[in-house]
Design brief:
By secondary structure, the protein is mostly beta strands. It has four helices and 16 strands. Helices cover 8% and strands 26% of the residues.
């Protein structure tokens, strides 16, 4: 998925549809950049929908082929792995769109917002969201396999906007421009089947083995980060914390969500534990990337 910048106001990204990171709705093959439909009066406000993750996660063994982008980018040893998969939905509840525009423009400008994924052959927006698995009792942290995001309108979040058009539906590549963002009242969903939407529990990614116990799945959208040295934030600054963000929002305090789950020592777990394993068709190329 792709994006373009709007007067340095906002920068965002979303689900990169491809081998390992994709949105559940196939993006259109044309760029929907109708300026009359883009709302930049006001500010967006991204949140993470707790119920979406709470109701859609699973622990199960799964065979990961070596050609999956999430295996290559996440440093995962291919083969039979024990995984925790989960869904993430990031709605825009603000009064304006998250609008970025063309990633190709940002990439050519070398402004640090986009990188070109060699595996996916499209642009990834940098620092759209972070996924962490955190031990409830000891606070130990594990990273997920997901590396790239591309922001799109995948599903309406508010019934008020249910019939509104999808403004953002194309990631973009070096040869085809794209259009990225999230319309107000819409959300960008990364379903549990998609590439990288998992934590490796058996140490197959070089991290510690995750023992049985209680954990938090933590997701932070538009995550905060500290400025480098004495330099100012390159994009925008949260006046309440002094920390940097990739794009401006009306509220940064609601960007983090946690779901508490129990991971057993063996066997499947979670509300989606009996769902069929993702296949190559789920992991590999999604239309319009």
């Amino acid at each position: 998925m792709t994006s373009r910048s709007l007067a340095a106001l906002l920068f965002v990204a979303a689900a990169c549809s491809t081998a390992n990171d994709d949105s559940p709705v196939a993006p259109s093959t044309t760029v929907s950049n109708n300026a009359a439909r883009i709302d930049t009066i006001g500010l967006p406000d991204l949140i993470v929908d707790q119920k979406s993750t709470e109701n859609k996660w699973r622990v199960k063994n799964e065979n990961l082929p070596a050609n999956f982008c999430s295996v290559q980018e996440g440093g995962v040893t291919p083969g039979n792995r024990r995984l925790l998969r989960f869904t993430v939905t990031t709605p825009n509840i603000g009064d304006a769109d998250v609008y970025v525009g063309s990633p190709l423009d940002h990439y050519n400008a070398n402004d640090g917002l986009y990188e070109l994924s060699g595996c996916h052959d499209h642009f990834h927006f940098q620092h759209y969201a972070t996924y962490s698995l955190i031990g409830v009792t000891d606070g130990q942290v594990w990273r997920s396999a997901k590396q790239g995001f591309c922001m799109l309108d995948t599903d309406p979040y508010s019934s008020v906007y249910r019939d509104s058009p999808r403004n953002y539906s194309n990631c973009g590549t070096l040869s085809r421009d794209g259009f990225q963002g999230i319309s107000k009242g819409w959300s960008d969903t990364y379903v549990w089947k998609l590439g990288g939407q998992y934590f490796v529990l058996d140490g197959g990614d070089g991290q510690r083995v995750v023992p049985a116990g209680w954990y938090y799945i933590q997701v932070e959208v538009n995550p905060a980060y500290a400025a480098t040295g004495k330099k100012a934030c390159p994009r925008t600054t949260d006046p309440a914390t002094g920390l940097c963000h990739q794009f401006t929002e009306s509220n940064y305090a609601n960007n983090t969500m946690r779901v508490k789950i129990y991971i057993p020592a063996s066997g499947p777990a979670g509300p989606y534990k009996n769902e069929a394993d993702p296949t190559a068709a789920d992991e590999i190329e999604h239309a319009g990337q």
